[in-house]
Amino acid sequence: MNEEYGHEPDVPLQSVARVSVVYNLKKQAGSDEPDDKYEEYDPIATVEAVADAVGAYGFSVSLCEQDDDFAARLAEQKPQFVANIAEGRGEARGREAQVPCFLESAGIPYWGSDAVSMAVALDKLLTSRTLLCDEIPVPLCACFKQEQDLSQLPTLFTERSRFVVKPRYEGSSKGIFSDSVAHTPDEAKEKIRRIWGRYAQPALLEEYLPGDEITVGIVGNGRPSVVGMMRIVPVEQREEFLYSLEEKRDYLKRIRYEGPESIPTSVRDQLGRFALKAFQSLELRDMARVDFRLDCDGTPRIIDINPLPGLSPEYSDLPILHRLSGGEYNDLVRSILRSSFSRNGLAFPARGSR
After folding, report:
1. Alpha-carbon gap, residue 173 to 177, rounded angstroms
2. Quick one: which of 31, 81, 268, 350 has the most CB atoms within 10 Å?
3. CA distance 75 to 82
4. Under CATH, which architecture does the 210-337 domain have?
5. Where do the structural domains in the chain lie, given as residue ranges?
6. Does 349 score more than 70 pLDDT?
7. Domain 13-113 belongs to what architecture?
8. Hey, how many other C-beta atoms are within 10 angstroms of the C-beta on 291?
9. Which stretches does DSSP call E strand in 73-189?
């Protein structure tokens, strides 16, 4: 038994000297590709920041890109543990499970959720259904795969007046634009077809929630904990706000991040409770970021869960919300490492960071 199931390992802890950071390197989209094609991938600065934070605890750290030479490079590095931040290659909905599957088959322990949870969490429809079964609040949503599905639209617009149209399995706000809110069936058709054409995957129609957007960070396993939360506010107030691709790319000018003190205590309590319940419902491990919008009654509803949250110390939401709650970047990485080491029966160095 291990901490994943609420218990400490009952075997001697193994020491670790070599750690590899596995990643996908961000590159420029081609002229025939959507400009957000590689939005989920990391710039080298983020990869190096993670490597430096891991190395601060005495590990010998190597960088290993998930590319055509990934398997050979990893075999050469012989890691005893992997800090995985790779989003996966290609466009299939199981892409975030690629590296976990490889590491599991090779018997290499790693941080983060397993392949099954990664794949389910990337699929927003399956995530919504799973949470709904556990009575965790989510928005009303419907999936559109083909032209005949569009006949649902008039009925849906009798139930809600506005919907967000987004890809079914993308992250980093890919496919969510400033004009992604549909107010009529005809607008929805246009935006659904845009998703089909641009991303070659089903479109999700999700009830627009008018309240605040708030994101919550979770770290741990058997007894996971909230490591911070923040409210995401547009600098220029508007009637409809989406934390869209355009907003994230220009966040310094367009977005204001506010710490937990900006959120009423009763709402903070709900957010923490729902986030932890969702983390356990999807059987996530080590870390996650849970995104909420408040509905017209002020109830938090989960709009996304990311078990592979960005770890840029500069612009990623999880490090920012942790910092707004008084934490430091290296401490966040240390908490994730310690959680995963405990779960895998590995000994974490007793000394602090260098």
Report:
1. 8
2. 81
3. 12
4. 2-Layer Sandwich (3.30)
5. 13-113, 140-207, 210-337
6. yes
7. 3-Layer(aba) Sandwich (3.40)
8. 19
9. 81-84, 141-144, 163-167, 181-182
